[in-house]
């Protein structure tokens, strides 16, 4: 089937996934105000295109953490991808490899991180800080040994936000799907009315990360360290002082604090405040190549794309994930050209307009 935009794949994925698995993917926390605001904020942001530019040698290539990428994007970490397709993370990682963009392996992947990293390309590893610090740092070692190129420490999940869809569904992982990087226990498959088994599991396993956690990760690895979940300028400045290589401006796709500001709303402020002290990435609400252009114009070196890749995975496995990344690439090339940008660097010099939260 031919898909001409990501919304087509979203509808197709919803049509093939069981209702509670769709809710696990699509839902946010609380009233889902931040989930909706992520899209509204993009729709209220506009770029000022430039004309009469030489577009002869236009390119979407860029540098992300010191390595070339074909596009200013990476595939975001999403847990338990075998929920959506039998090949899960392996299929999505192959699509990212073939698209020439990093693939971020989630701590809660449903296939061991070593097997996913063996796909090749540019694997990164996303780390949730665990109650057992030794296990956290052991995951960092495993990621290093497997050839991962960066550690992405997620800092906005001291515990999982109240995701009401999952609570209403009494969501559990189906048999055969579990946290493959460490023992999850049988209770992730045991249904309890009004309780998300996944949230209960993470409440037992996760601990709030702090600046000592950041220091411990940086001391443990020579890989670039990226902090995911930064929204405040003060936290961004402190991240630079801590010596990290990058931050991801993110409200966790509207899945943690309901009411947290959309990343695109504060991206420009954060990028300006740290003035190149580290690379700035962002995620939350990317649904087109035009959205990628807006994020770059506001100061992002790259974006993370999450749910849309899973729509493709659910619809047609690796081929579906590939179509998502190809659509984004085609839309980005079109948007850059129409905005008069021959390069990602030029896109970063575009002016933007739109209301901002004060």
From TrEMBL:
<protein>
    <submittedName>
        <fullName>Alpha-hydroxy acid oxidase</fullName>
    </submittedName>
</protein>
<keyword id="KW-0285">Flavoprotein</keyword>
<dbReference type="InterPro" id="IPR037396">
    <property type="entry name" value="FMN_HAD"/>
</dbReference>
<dbReference type="InterPro" id="IPR013785">
    <property type="entry name" value="Aldolase_TIM"/>
</dbReference>
<dbReference type="InterPro" id="IPR000262">
    <property type="entry name" value="FMN-dep_DH"/>
</dbReference>
<keyword id="KW-0560">Oxidoreductase</keyword>
<comment type="similarity">
    <text>Belongs to the FMN-dependent alpha-hydroxy acid dehydrogenase family.</text>
</comment>
<keyword id="KW-0288">FMN</keyword>
<feature type="domain" description="FMN hydroxy acid dehydrogenase">
    <location>
        <begin position="1"/>
        <end position="357"/>
    </location>
</feature>
<dbReference type="InterPro" id="IPR012133">
    <property type="entry name" value="Alpha-hydoxy_acid_DH_FMN"/>
</dbReference>
<dbReference type="InterPro" id="IPR008259">
    <property type="entry name" value="FMN_hydac_DH_AS"/>
</dbReference>
<dbReference type="Pfam" id="PF01070">
    <property type="entry name" value="FMN_dh"/>
</dbReference>
